[in-house]
Amino acid sequence: MGRFLERIYPYGISVVIGIIILLTKTEVYKVIRLEFILNSSITFSSTYIGFVITAITVLVGLTQKPIMKFLNKKKFLDLIVEYFMASIMIGTLVIIYSLYLGYSVDNNCIVSKVEFAGFVMIFLSFLLCLIRVASFLMKIFLVIQYEEDIFNNNGVEEIDPNKPFSNNIISKKSP
Question: What 3-state DSSP class applies to 30?
Fold first, then answer.
């Protein structure tokens, strides 16, 4: 149950906020400086997607680290991939929806309740996914900093430093 809640909380909270907006009596919203908000959301989402892709390449470079082996052994890598892909997909959805709103809203910056609720739900779920991924990355990098103290290096396998591009693995098992 805990893992299920962990997976759905960004979307659940966003849907609740969206329903609250849809239940209000206001039918349209006048959003001041809507163009600025949409441009900022596109820029922010694009930058964050680039950050996530960079973080993925860093994590791929850490595959031989004990923390990554531990996460793989405990079957957390699939969850990590899910978190990263969800944030990339929702970030892309923010960009697409922001472009849609930019083209569909008139110069008076009047947005219908449904369009406004949709934007809030998508952007809020994006922010919550961002916080989840950032929290995860901070924990990984913190553990990597102190991994010698946390993980016992006995039994941890490493790539032979003399042959970094081979699949030659040395085992550091204690006698």
Answer: strand
H helices present in 62-173, as ranges: 66-73, 77-104, 113-145, 147-150
* CA distances to 74, 108, 131 from 149, in Å: 20, 60, 27
Q: Kindly provide the b/e burial profile for residues 33-46, where b requires at least 16 CB atoms within 10 angstroms of the residue's own CB.
A: ebeebbeebbebbe
User: Residue 157 is inside which H or E element, if any?
Assistant: strand 157-159
Q: Render pLDDT for 114-171 as a digit per residue (tens, 0 to 9).
A: 999 999 999 999 999 999 898 888 888 787 777 766 665 544 445 444 544 444 444 4
CB 154 within 8 A of CB 173: yes
Residue 75, phi-psi category: left (phi > 0), alpha (psi -120 to 50), beta (remainder): left
